[in-house]
Amino acid sequence: MYAQANMISKVSNPAFVLHDHSPEDVARATILGLQKEPFFIFDMDEAYRRIQYFKHKLPRVQIFYAMKANDGELMLKLAVATGLGFDCASIHEIHKILRLNVPPTDIIYAVTMKTPEQMMYARQSGVKRATFDSPSELVKLKEYWPDVELLLRISVKSDSVYQLGIKFGCNFETEATDLLDKAACMGLRVAGVAFHVGSTCLSPESYLKALQQARYLFDYEAKAGRTMRILDIGGGFFCDDNLFEQATSVIRKGLDELFPGPNVQIVAEPGRYICETACNLYCNINNVKTITKNDKPLNMVYINDGLHGSLRSFEKWHTIHKFELETTKHEELEDTILWGPTSDPRDCLTEVQLPRCTPRDWLVFKTQGAYASTFSSKFCGFGLVQTRFLISFDLW
Ligand code: PLP
């Protein structure tokens, strides 16, 4: 059905080349091959389509893939093969990406609070760019990484599921220009502005507001006789088609109006958008019991992955189905509560309507390619869930 393609990579996690079969066929074959542990099926063609579509919608924007979303070795290799740069959030990520022979100049160390040791490691590795948002970070940078090209991260208010602005970024009104002046006084070079509207951004107009603030700061620097030439518009792109269309249309118009011409390099750091829809998680059911809640039956279904494993960032827009190994007749849906396998009573995923399940049945959690494997912990001794990467013959 599918051939193992060791030729695609020398890494320990090879991809499988599909010949006229779907990722679901591979999942079914895996289960029938007596798989018991949970597993991911990662469709590299889907991630490839997302990368190409992002480039198509924002042709002026260079992608620096936020590898924190999914750092599976073949996801990273796909990103390298399609010419992406990388947003690294730690020196461990920098180390991992340099091992794939990515030039250090294709990395942004997008963290605003780095230790001296981390700065020295990045500098010695040849990384050139990093973000900052505070005066104390400038003091450290002056001592340990004086030749860095800095991006001033500004905080953005938005309607986002993950509000990164409450933790990162300086206040545009009260802090931004002071920080620019301070960096200049210290002889540090600020090469541009960075922002992140928050992960899974539901308010596309937030990008425009942030672009306007960035424009103001570019002009401020120009008046002071200093030139900035990089604009980093971060991530936050949702996989929902409608919202993606709206966000990219706002950004395209905003860039054309506020940053016309080729003098400013525009980069983005999408994570979730690239990999979320590429991957499904398959979980086996350990046990089922039925209780009575509010005078109604409720099926308690215990599965072999949960909040402390791959499902920590399980969200309300993710769908769950019973994974049928063969076609079955339509079954009635029943009230069901899903529990993870650990001893923590908070390891409870969601209440959902599912057909009656029995131990050894399988559930599939759709679109688990982002922040699932990378969030996973080892609580109660459970290990990382294996990913099976698939690629079509054509793309391979
Ligand atoms: N860049 C930075 C600095 C981030 O902190 C994150 C996510 O936390 C990303 C990019 C990726 O964001 P997203 O997955 O929403 O595209």
Detailed description of the structure:
There is one protein chain. By secondary structure, the chain is α/β, with parallel strands linked by helices. The chain folds into two domains: 2-44 and 278-392, Lyase, Ornithine Decarboxylase, Chain A, domain 1 (Beta Barrel), CATH 2.40.37.10; 46-275, Alanine racemase (TIM Barrel, Alpha-Beta Barrel), CATH 3.20.20. The chain contains ten helices and 20 strands. The chain has helices spanning 23-32, 44-57, 73-81, 91-98, 116-124, 135-144, 176-185, 205-223, 241-258, 272-275, and strands at 2-5, 15-18, 39-43, 61-66, 85-88, 107-109, 129-132, 149-154, 160-162, 189-195, 199-201, 230-232, 265-268, 279-293, 296-303, 320-323, 333-339, 348-355, 362-365, 386-392. Strands 1, 2, 3, 14, 15, 16, 17, 18, 19 and 20 form a ten-stranded mixed beta sheet that branches. Strands 4-5-6-7-8-10-12-13 form an eight-stranded parallel β-barrel. Strands 9-11 form a two-stranded antiparallel ribbon. It is elongated and about 70 Å long. The chain starts with a strand and ends with a strand. Mean pLDDT is 94; it is low at 1-12. Bound molecules: pyridoxal-5'-phosphate. Pyridoxal-5'-phosphate binds next to helix 10.
